[in-house]
Predict the structure.
Amino acid sequence: MNNRENEMPILEVKNLKKYFKSGRGKTKLVVKAIDDVSFNIYKGEVFGLVGESGCGKTTTGRTIIKLYDPTDGEIFFMGQRIGAGHQGLNDNISEKRKEVRVAVQQLKMEYNARISASPSAEDQASLKKELAEKISVLQKEKQEFIRKNKLQISERKRTVDQDTPLMRKMQMIFQDPIASLDPRMTVKEIIAEGLRIAGVKNEKEIITRVNKVLETVGLLPEHASRYPHEFSGGQRQRIGIARALVVNPEFIIADEPVSALDVSIQAQVINLLNDLRHDIGITIMFIAHDLSVIKYFSDRIGVMYYGNLVELATADELFLNPLHPYTRSLLSAVPLPDPRYEKTRKRIVYKPWEVHNYENNPPRLHEIKEGHFVQANDEEIESYMKILK
């Protein structure tokens, strides 16, 4: 999915899966919060991730920053593997063992029947030897298959530790500006906590950096001695942004940073992030469900539905040529400040069981056009190609 052949992505997500289990025994359920998601984010860009509530956007961000361990897939940051799961490899091993066990049983049934029908002891001995050889070949193939998969599992387990300088270059702005700030700590201690964890011990340097980052996000140095409850929602979100910025990150995951704020405050926070992006060159993964904000702020947009990435394109391309039915449904829900348009606007309802038939032809993320990816099977790809033409 890399349409920038000569550029290494700052973040690379490969076949990422995150499953949650609930219940016990026969009532045990597996919730596929993220199911085989892949995308790249390049230095200096804003990558928007959009979708309805519960589609897996926040889980994707939390898994990338290692708040959750991935079930399967790999995450690379600045060329190094920072997270990996190996459930798929374990499943492959279990499936291979089952496959060989069934094959051995079938061979034994077949040869036992032939041995019983054989008239001479010499023929019976020959058949037994032949059976043993075939079983031996199957067992050797199984052991080699298991060995290769276990090597891959061992390789995936070698990931960058949480407390390395590399991981400090990635920070997160959380969705709730109230719950994400400790009410018992002053603003200075909240922001300085990251510096202390990073090993900065000089109190004068800490105060200098805290004051500087407060000014960067539009607050004042005297705010450092106050507590979170003394601020408005927009100011608290600025404190959250300051906490992320103080360790000089190169990549920020902004998890719906404006969803709990008033419209005027949303604009202030978005403009602040935009200024930081241009002034400091920070790369941002912007998670939201507001398509108007996403279009204004993002270079490329990924659309998620039920744990899957169903469409990925540049912001202009996605709004100009939405192909996946779910994307079209989302766009049809965006209101415009035009009463005449609003009177005639028709809401498109997405019903996957009506528009898709994946029983015999499963979908895949296909590059339908340079830089424009859509989840579709072969039949749908043909229809989308006709739409683009």
In short: The radius of gyration is 27 Å.
